[in-house]
Design goal:
Number of helices: 9
Structural class: mainly alpha
Number of strands: 2
Strand order of the largest sheet: 1-2
Number of domains: 2
Strand content: under 5%
Helix content: 55-70%
Radius of gyration: 37 Å
């Protein structure tokens, strides 16, 4: 027996899916060869939808009901990403026509989500990774690797937000971060006279996130070294203090006094001579 909340989730998600499916049909009806940009934007919207759904258990349950309503194939082993892709791209009348591509699109969604990419970043991410099929071939990161990468990036963002600058930089158009972000990348060339010059800048989030991951790991390693050094110094100070307190608690050493006392002067008897 369904509840009102379940029905509302089904209704709301169904409307969102129909809007995405309509966007897909507009792309499909256009010139296929020239529609890559629109396809990438559609995949970006689908990625955002997937990220939203997976955060809510009720939404996930509603997706299962919609799969049944639309009579789309799924079982307990079907990933949420594949369910979402089938709902948006396959539909009830095109399952055989695009089913093989559904697995490819699903892989793109999963890889991008695992690397922290959001919908607005996905088109450029696909271009930077040489297309959808190249992303499909990527080896998946383990859940522990994904979590470690995410934590390293968050650590770097927190540490670098207020860190003193190495040197000031004029923020030209090429160095402006994307909306809502704080970081971009600059490519520095070492000149013959030993000076440096910024020769290229980018706000590509995949590249920025990679560098933040590197920075986070390096910054965390430096923090660990400082803590270890501080602990070692504190340990040495404590050992010295303990030794000092031990010496102070010991009784003063006694002066040895022999029991046999010799007289201070001794009279020698002169030998008798003949």
């Amino acid at each position: 027996m369904t509840t009102r909340l379940e029905d509302k989730n089904v209704h709301d998600l169904s409307n969102a899916i129909e809007a995405l499916a309509a966007q897909h049909r507009r792309w499909e009806a256009g010139t296929y060869a020239a529609s890559n940009a629109e396809l990438y934007a559609l995949l970006g919207s689908t990625l955002d939808f997937f990220i939203k759904v997976r955060r809510n258990l009720d939404h996930c349950k509603a997706i299962n009901r919609l799969m049944d309503i639309y009579k789309l194939t799924h079982n307990s082993q079907t990933s949420l990403a594949l369910k979402v892709v089938r709902l948006v791209f396959v539909g009830t009348d095109r399952q055989n026509k695009i089913e093989n591509r559904a697995f490819v699109y699903c892989r793109v969604i999963e890889v991008a989500a695992g690397e922290g990419i959001i919908g607005s970043e996905l088109p450029q991410y696909i271009v930077d990774n040489h297309g959808i099929d190249e992303i499909r071939r990527k080896m998946p990161l383990s859940s522990s690797d994904t979590k470690s990468t995410h934590m390293a990036r968050e650590f770097a963002e927190a540490m670098l937000a207020d860190q003193a600058e190495l040197f000031p930089v004029t923020m030209g158009d090429g160095l402006q971060p994307v909306d809502g972000a704080r970081f971009s990348l600059a490519l520095v060339r070492k000149n013959d006279d030993g000076t440096g010059s910024i020769v290229f800048g980018t706000n590509n989030m995949a590249a920025v996130n990679n560098v933040l991951n590197i920075a986070g790991k390096a910054l965390k390693a430096n923090v660990v070294k400082r803590v270890e050094r501080s602990v070692a110094e504190a340990d040495a100070d404590q050992r010295a203090l303990n030794l000092q307190q031990l010496m102070q608690s010991l009784p003063a050493p006694k002066v040895f006094q022999p029991e046999l006392q010799l007289p201070e002067t001794v009279t020698l008897t002169q030998p008798v001579t003949a």
